[in-house]
Amino acid sequence: MPFELTILGSSSAIPTSERYPTAQVLNVLGRFFLIDCGEGTQIQIRRQKIAFGKIKHIFISHLHGDHFYGLIGLISTFNLLGLKNDIHIYSPSQLKDVIQTQLDFLKGEMQFKVIFHPLNFKKPQLIFEDKKVEVISFPLKHSINCCGFLFREKPKEANIKKECIEQYQIPVAQIRAIKQGADFLTTEGEVVPNTKLTTPPPPPRSYAFCSDTAFYPQVVETIQGVNLLYHEATFTEELRDWAERTYHSTALDAAKTAQMAHAGKLIIGHFSTRYKEVEPFLEEAQTVFSNTEVAIDGKTYSVKK
Length: 305
Ligand SMILES: [Zn+2]
Prior knowledge:
Layout: E1 3-9, E2 23-28, E3 31-37, H1 41-47, E4 55-59, H2 71-80, E5 87-91, H3 95-103, E6 114-118, E7 125-129, E8 133-139, E9 147-153, E10 159-160, H4 162-168, H5 172-179, E11 184-185, E12 191-192, H6 194-197, E13 198-199, E14 206-210, H7 220-223, E15 228-232, H8 240-245, H9 251-260, E16 265-269, H10 279-286, E17 292-294, E18 300-302
Parallel strand pairs: 3-4, 4-5, 5-6, 14-15, 15-16, 16-17
Antiparallel strand pairs: 1-2, 1-18, 2-3, 7-8, 8-9, 9-14, 10-13, 11-12
The chain binds zinc ion (ZN).
């Protein structure tokens, strides 16, 4: 079952000819979550051949333009295409006023609602869940209120061994309970322990998005053990002064966070346009965390255990 991240934009404040501003699509078991929505996001979604109708949940980390200026264009397109799914937006509360003013100018009746869910900037919070997936927002340390997001699968049920169903004549009605950990009592009164009947489920996978932030070790508790971490790296250590002044991270900061969180893999992005090359970012991060990759627009990364 898919759990994969597609980078739509990995530039910082200003788009370049190679990089769009921040936007990503995360496919978790067929649920398509849009994370941030910089200018041009809808073009990138089209390029990736992701159906617009699959996007029902949008997560906006903060209200700097490079993270949400693509939103009204995307919603307008949803409207023009006659889509009917309601759109849920998880964002700072002020976004509702900004977008609503623009929505009032859309011609034609919208056949869907835009529902806003305000983020909490004081502590981590569960903001979305269904049967298989949950999303937790967590505060970051930026020049304005900003949140990161943790997406993770819920623990799966154990697998029951087919041969055991036949051997012990297990009725269908009891299979669910056994998958959830119950032992089985045979008609002869023998207790068959659960461990004999099942194999453990695959471990749940997780992805964390650390949007714009200064180095902020407090996030480590929330994202501990994450399989894939995206962390902004706007600067290298050479411009540490700039990073501190603007509440951004260096590649080294991103790598330290990945190391402390025992992340499986790190992707860095949100590169300042002051840099012509991205190699210095990669080299700097890899001095601390070797399993680092540089974000590339249009590339898909699978989230693995
Ligand atoms: Zn920002």
